[in-house]
Inverse folding.
């Protein structure tokens, strides 16, 4: 524990940087000195004041001798309560499995962009995909930004490292005939209602699996999306969406309303059949197993693909139903801003980028339909 905020001095170093040195008096009487660095005297003073404020709030003090490993573990502890459980688990996976074995022993204050670049190149040579290597850089950049704020690093060396070129993900358009085939393939299965709703209104997997009856109004034909289901350490929980636009109210087309009515009746039958075995770890879910438990995303995809295989159809992931909904809406002439709102994308640019590969073909089809319509209406009468 620190007894007081301490005091600081600022000097101009021979290497051109400004150093702000802070002396901190500990409870046992010892004095610990910490330095932060900046390119200008004003910036050094600001970082020194920020460091003193951090100390006054009881936050950990950066140590120039701290290794990358020690810093990353400390950063993970600091952010654990402010991000979602699945997010912190992903951070740990990328940093502790991939970054620490490569550069963890290096002093944090001596880490350079070249060190990070070489580490990324080694991960690529080990067989990781460009997208995975890009994820490693992104998470490391996020973690090191706190070190920049603390003044341990004068710059974010991960941000200065060149990211690998990540190929654009190609989204394939879904034809109406394929969508109809998918619905026929799952008819009568326990995921029929789930697949129907996802295909008609483009819900994300977590949104569909976390849908509650309290958020469904079948009379008004609307559905509210404001939570998503997540699973971690074999436990399910409802979490808030990441962005404000993900919270949305959607109109329900007729087939989706019919599917939800059938699901409500089916669930009542399952509850009656299960009797005392019925358990609801998450209350009021629309889509559950025969004993009331939530569905697990990978299980749903497995069952969907099994149904498609039996029907002789191409394999599709559950998430492809969301893309199918979007491409069918775009193909029908729905404005891209409306599609953005239905999908809950944060920006219209995200929608346009996601479906950039299919928009030209959809536009050509629309032009061809328009030409056919114009020919039929301008054909001279006999």
């Amino acid at each position: 524990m620190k007894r007081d905020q301490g005091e600081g001095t600022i000097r101009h170093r021979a290497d051109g940087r400004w150093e702000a040195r802070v002396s901190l008096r500990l409870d046992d009487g010892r004095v610990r000195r910490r330095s932060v660095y900046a390119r200008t005297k004003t910036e050094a003073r600001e970082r020194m004041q920020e460091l003193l404020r951090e100390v006054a709030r009881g936050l950990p003090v950066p140590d120039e001798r701290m290794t990358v490993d020690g810093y990353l573990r400390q950063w993970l502890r600091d952010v654990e309560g402010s991000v979602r459980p699945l997010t912190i688990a992903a951070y740990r996976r990328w940093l502790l499995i991939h970054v620490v074995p490569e550069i963890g022993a290096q002093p944090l204050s001596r880490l350079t962009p070249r060190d990070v670049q070489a580490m990324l190149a080694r991960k690529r040579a080990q067989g990781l995909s460009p997208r995975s290597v890009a994820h490693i850089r992104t998470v490391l950049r996020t973690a090191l930004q706190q070190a920049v704020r603390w003044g341990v690093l004068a710059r974010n060396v991960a941000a200065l490292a060149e990211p690998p070129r990540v190929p654009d993900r190609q989204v394939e358009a879904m034809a109406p005939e394929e969508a109809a085939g998918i619905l026929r393939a799952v008819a009568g299965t326990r995921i029929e209602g789930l697949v129907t709703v996802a295909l008609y209104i483009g819900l994300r997997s977590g949104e569909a699996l976390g849908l509650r009856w309290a958020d469904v109004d079948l009379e008004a034909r609307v559905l509210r999306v404001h939570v998503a289901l997540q699973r971690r350490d074999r436990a399910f929980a409802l979490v808030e969406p990441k962005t404000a636009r993900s919270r949305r109210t959607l109109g329900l087309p007729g087939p989706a309303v019919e599917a939800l009515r059938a699901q409500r009746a089916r669930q009542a039958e399952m509850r009656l059949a299960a009797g005392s075995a019925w358990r609801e770890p998450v209350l009021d879910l629309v889509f559950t197993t025969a004993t009331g438990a939530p569905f697990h995303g990978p299980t749903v995809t497995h069952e969907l693909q099994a149904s498609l295989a039996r029907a002789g159809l191409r394999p599709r992931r559950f998430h492809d139903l969301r893309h199918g909904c979007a491409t069918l809406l775009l193909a029908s002439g729905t404005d891209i801003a409306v599609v953005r709102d239905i999908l809950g994308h944060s920006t219209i640019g995200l929608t346009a980028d996601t479906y950039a590969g299919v928009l030209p073909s959809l536009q050509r089809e629309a032009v061809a339909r328009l030409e056919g319509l114009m020919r039929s209406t301008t054909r001279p009468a006999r």
